[in-house]
Amino acid sequence: WSNTYRARIREQLEKTGASCDWTRERFTMDEGLDRAVREVFVRLYNKGLIYQGNRIINWCPKCKTALSDAEIEYEEQEGSLWYIKYSVKNSSEYIIIATTRPETMLGDVAVAVNPKDERYKDLVGKTLILPLVGREIPIIEDSYVDMEFGTGAVKITPAHDPNDFEVGKRHNLEQIIIINDDGTMADNTGKYKGLDRYEARKQIVNDLKELGVLVKIEKHVHNVGCHDRCNTTVEPLLSKQWFVKMKPLAEPAIEAVKNGKVKFVPDRFAKIYYNWMENIQDWCISRQLWWGHRIPIWYCSDCNEVIASVDEPKTCPKCGSHNLKQDEDVLDTWFSSALWPFSTLGWPDETEDLKYFYPTDVLVTGYDIIFFWVARMIFSGIENMDMPPFKYVFMHGIVRDDKGRKMSKSLGNGIDPLEVIDKYGADALRFTLVTGNAPGNDIRFYMEKVEASRNFANKIWNAS
User: Fold this and answer.
1) Domain 72-227: which topology?
2) What pLDDT shows up at residue 412?
3) Which of 67, 100, 112, 363 can bridge 390 by disulfide, Cβ–Cβ 3.0-4.6 Å?
């Protein structure tokens, strides 16, 4: 990747007229930065802020890797809402649930209703028989349930939905994985075993019809997350991954903005920052990719000791064995990016650059990465440098295409600035991007605007 794109990115920046000291060019995979990444990981691990555990993560069945939220593009799709009857055990009573994903019902372990919902008061605590499976599942109460969605009764599948996972933890429910990492149905799904998840959906819906428990189907428009690289629909999966405990890191980062140590411009973006940070979940930092920063964890094959080390250990500190194997996963790219303000200056060494340039005055960036980069730089700076990495965060909007769509690989609507510069010049492009728009607002990119900017620039040149 570096060999292919590094020179191209620099060429784009140079031709747009960016005033930079090019001798200070850095890449997050450079040796010094790689050391900083390993150092931070080990420090957080030793403080108990990094752990390995089973949680719901975003999973791409095609690429077979966990994904960060930044790697997911959401698109509005017209789907269906299936209403299914679950019968109460040894009774003529029943409850109807509504779901957008009937294939996951094979992993249901409960049906939840809101404790304020009077419609279901007499059913709470009773046992249901799960259609197609025959498993007994309880009816429980949980305030997570939206009484206005569907019937107000929600199937709970802790292994395949992040909200259900949290409900499951609160009620100590079983976690049943029924979809494999390649998007096919798992061995425990009976006759659906090995089917693609969407083929299984069709068969399950047909079987529910034949069983007489499919009450109705409604059209339902909802947002569907897709991997930005391959456009595959993301699958929420229960998976063993590495996580960062976020609440202890988020609290001082929230306070830094509240007390004015970091200011957002325009200040309305501080509300977005607070909303995310105050409701933050633990961060999944492991990725099943072949390229990136390897997780600095080694496993002893003889005594199963887990070793976190900045440098590769020669022997196991517990049993002295040389039979050590490094974790095969790599870190989320945002983990190394979060350290940028100090890793590029020689940290963990006390360099002159670090003393002189940290913290900087202002960060200029797009509002779409407040969560993924800005917030993570702030808490990483406070955690490792005892102060935020910058004083001001100047937010600009997103440059969209002429139809108002976000530029993306999947849409193929990106614009190479070099092509625009070759045709109209750098001044025309720069003038177009900095005029006619309020700070923090998106801008639609029209070639006609660039042409008008070129004509204006020509008049200025001619007049001077």
Assistant:
1) Isoleucyl-tRNA Synthetase; domain 2 (3.90.740)
2) 86
3) 363
Q: Is the pLDDT of residue 1 over 70?
A: no
Given this model, what pLDDT does residue 79 score? 93
How many Å apart are CA 28 and CA 45, to the nearest integer?
21
207 membership: H or E segment, kind and range: helix 197-211
- pLDDT tens, residue by residue, 56-107: 999 999 999 998 777 888 888 999 999 999 999 999 999 999 999 999 999 9
The DSSP call for residue 372 is: I
More confident residue, 144 or 409: 144
Tokens of 299: 């496993």
Q: Is the N-terminal amide bond of 348 cis, ω within 30° of 0? A: yes
CATH code: domain 1-49+245-285+332-396 is 3.40.50.620
Tell me the pTM: 0.85
Residues 6+ apart with CB under 8 A from 15: 417, 418, 421, 426
Please list, residue by residue across 406-444, b when 16 or more beta carbons sit within 10 angstroms of its beta carbon and e when fewer do.
eeeeeeeeeeebeebbeebbbbbbbbbbeeeeeebeebe
**CB atoms near residue 291 (< 10 Å):** 11
- The span from the CA of 169 to the CA of 175, in Å, is 9
The token pair at 315 is 């022997």
With beta carbons less than 8 A apart as the criterion, state whether 332 and 65 touch.
no
Name 306's bridge partners: 299
Task: Report the mean per-residue pLDDT for the chain.
Answer: 95
- Domain map (residue ranges) of the chain: 1-49+245-285+332-396, 72-227, 399-463
Q: How far apart (Å, rounded) are the C-alpha atoms in residues 148 and 128?
A: 22
CATH of 399-463, one of 2.60.120.260, 1.20.58.100, 3.40.50.720, 1.10.730.10: 1.10.730.10
Phi/psi of residue 96, each to 5°? Answer: -110, 125
Interhelix angle for 426-434 vs 447-463, to 10°? 110
| Tens-place pLDDT, residues 313-327 | 999 999 999 999 999
Question: What CA–CA distance (Å, rounded) separates 151 from 123?
Answer: 14
